[in-house]
Amino acid sequence: xxxxKDIILPPSLRISDDGEERHAEWxxxxxxxxxxxxxxxxxxxxxxxxxxxxxxxSIPLFFVIWWGWVGHTFYLTRFGTDDILNRFxxxxxxxxxxxxxxxxxxxxxxxxxxxAIAYALLRFILVLEYYRxxxxxxxxxxxxxxxxxxxxxxxxxxxxxxxxxAPYIFVLWALAIIVDILTPITAAEEHYKLxxxxxxxxxRFGLFTIILIGEAVVSVVFTINAVGFGxxxxxxxxxxxxxxxxIWWSYFEEARGAEAKIIKSENKVSSYHLWLYxxxxxxxxxxxxxxxxxxxxxxxxxxxxxSGEVWLLCVSxxxxxxxxxxxxxxSFSLSECKNKLFIAFRMPYYFIIVxxxxxxxxxxxxxxxxxxxxxxxxxxxxVLFSLREVPEELVCKL
Length: 398
Hints:
Layout: H1 26-48, H2 52-79, H3 84-104, H4 112-136, H5 141-161, H6 168-185, H7 188-193, H8 200-227, H9 231-254, H10 269-277, H11 279-298, H12 307-329, H13 339-358, H14 368-385
């Protein structure tokens, strides 16, 4: 039996200016699903403690899961090669992420060590990938060496933390997360020289975002099915779907979060980072919002949401809208735009964010379905504002 010659291939450099038309591959989409499963478990934890206390506890875990996805996604967009070794390493990462998901529920308790070891393994695999890319691609060696040092240090801190008792284990987690974040930020020059693919990476982020929005839709439908069809539950469900649809519209139509991102100069890397990191609060807000909507639908007819849940719903929607605004701003060069005109054009969106937060003062005074209706109204108003034509003076994209 003769094996195919393309079973194991060296990594190839696939950057923005290579002229290659790239789209997400089937393996990448499959890879996304295990991360969405992990986020779903975090959402279930939040659902059992839907409060600001539960929300704050979920933030580090949510970030670790999301950042693990970002790491491999950035590697693939620059160096991805569809060979057996890449598929094996991707499958291995999926197994590790599954272990993360299993231990996320008690990450602050008895499963903290297992969670830390699993995440350390995830970073070690990423380091191995970058080592292999640097070995074959001399042009990328400076970038890969930088990533290897940063991610290896973070992985070692995670591994060491597994043998440290609480509460000191969490201090090391915080340190490791800081190292992880600073690693790509401190490589701005190399990021400009070897930018991620201008279309492939935004498409990957767009697909991950729409999968998470889809999870919110599934949550609404499943909850209605569980509580049984009724006029009030149907109204609440419709409001939830309107909110989800408006977020989809705002991301893909207004903010254009999945459009091509071209880094034309080194000083534009900061705008790229703004686009990248704004996705974390966006996805966190969507997941928290979906959990709150599920709570509202679960209530009996005419029941009221507790004040704490009302405020968390308002904050999560405001956080989502603020993140969408930042993603939109990242596409503009404010040094070239007329700042006052730009601020005036964006002002209605900030007005909506303020009104969403002010809704928290009355949310606990009206039935849950009415409260969701008000939030849906603000969402529809945001969609209407997005239909405005952008003034010619502001057509100064990066």
